Amino acid sequence: MAGPSKTKSVEDLENQLILKNKDLNEKYLELETLLDLTNTINSLNDLDSLFFNVLTLSSSILNSSKGIVLIKNEVSNIFDPISIFNLDENKIKKQIFNTRSGFLKLLNRDKKSFIVEKKHKLNHKLFDSSFSIVCPIISENMLVGAIILFDKETRKGIEDFNINDLKLLDSITIQTSFAYQNIRLLESLKKSNKLNENVMSSITTGIIGINLFGEIEFVNKEGLRLLKKDNLEVVGNHYLIIFEKDKHLQELIQKVEVDQERLFETEFTIKLNRKKIIVNLSCSPVFDEQKAFSGIVIAIDDLSKINKVKSTFKKYVSKNIVDKLLESEDSLNLGGTESDITILFSDIRGFTSMSEKLNPSEIVRLLNKYFQSMIDVVFKYNGTLDKIVGDELMVLYGVPLKNEKDTENAVNTAIEMFKKLDQFNKEITKNGFEPFQIGIGINKGKAVSGNIGSEQQMNYTVIGDTINLGARLCSHAKSGQILISNSVKDHISKIHDFKKIPSIAVKGKSKPIDVWLYTHKN
């Protein structure tokens, strides 16, 4: 009897060992699968790939026939179906998932995984005819999503999920939550970096970042344009290599490294290979969160662009006006101020009849040449060219820049205009053109000067009775004559040969105006 009993004990022990071994193999396989899944999801860098892989791999491990991943919408309190496996997408997308009721309410409250048996209802159509298992995706202790698997398939058919399935999926979901947070953080950093890159790329200032070791770690598009290099040639190289030809700039950077204080240089010349450019340059130290020196940022404003705008602007408007407008933002405001000015009008006599004999291109060419010689004289005596109207010049003295010799300069301008006209006429008469004849009127007095017009279109000019009288004097002046008012005569030297002539009646004045005449002699 002892023999058979002993044999049975051995068999029982062997069966127990087989079961234990089977359990161990299953545990080993489970851990190996979980490790593989963890490695997979940690290698992903976008949310769509993450949830697709989590759903398909966890369904495979747990033999689930279908599943879904829900993620909370960032804008609303609705949970969107991000990944769907073996379910009707159209039906799923028509359903509303929120935490007001059903399984999401339970998840939001307890933040724990659970098994839904077929006999239990969770107030949602997804669970009406299925065995299911539900696990939360948690981020910063907030419910941000859920993984739901349905209908565990076995050789015996569809079965309920068990506690081991729950533990396994719970482990997967915890890893998924970590991966979700990492990817969200990475995406946030990418967006932030992209925004910074877009900002740096869009600004017109060249930006160059130098790290603690003197290597250039960042340069924006404008910086590359100024350096005339591409990103690969600059980033990673030491600034001594990039600015090899510019010892002065090297010294500035080294001074900031030592003193750790910002330096600013205006109209600084940078030497880049064989080319030199004029810039405003700022060289600033950078400090980390512990306030330790961590590098330098160089900001470069290319003045060649500004100078080009200035030079172009000055072809249309007097240099004095350009400088005044660029002096401060207030100069661009609508409005004006009253001040003493001297105004000169110059007009071509008989120009209409002359132009009828010429074709348009000849008229333009002659006028351009004439105006060039006249405007050269205006700028020589610091006059401000207000406008050219047809064949007439309007020139200001005393605005926007004031000088004690403004009136004297206006008269000198007028006299020299006739000398320039003589030279101009000698040239054009050789080519068969009729000589130009001009008359000039000059007045002095109070006028309002400033920006007149609208916010969209404005004109720097002067208005007032002084201007009107200057125009009337020009109208009365004959060819070769300069007519000036008493106010002008009182402010010029006696060397000028002006003679008193009978008073003239002008439109807008009730009494005749005293005038003085200068006649140009060829």
Describe the structure.
This protein has 522 residues and is α+β, with helices and mostly antiparallel strands. The N and C termini lie far apart (156 Å). The chain has 3 domains: 18-186, 2-Layer Sandwich (Beta-Lactamase); 202-306, 2-Layer Sandwich (Beta-Lactamase); 319-519, Alpha-Beta Plaits. Strands 12, 13, 14, 15, 16, 17, 18 and 19 form an 8-stranded mixed sheet that branches. Helix 13 runs antiparallel to helix 14 (406-430). The radius of gyration is 44 Å and the shape is elongated. The protein contains 16 helices and 19 strands.
Can you tell me the CATH architecture of the largest domain?
A: 2-Layer Sandwich
Strand content: 25-35%
Give the low-confidence spans. 328-334
What's the alpha carbon Rg, rounded to whole Å? Answer: 44 Å
> How would you characterize the largest beta sheet?
8 strands, mixed
Number of strands: 19
| Fourth CATH level, the homologous superfamily of the largest domain | Nucleotide cyclase, GGDEF domain
Structural class determined from secondary elements: alpha+beta
Percent helix = 40-55%
- Alpha plus pi helix count: 16
Domain count: the total is 3
What would the principal axes of the Cα set say about the shape?
elongated
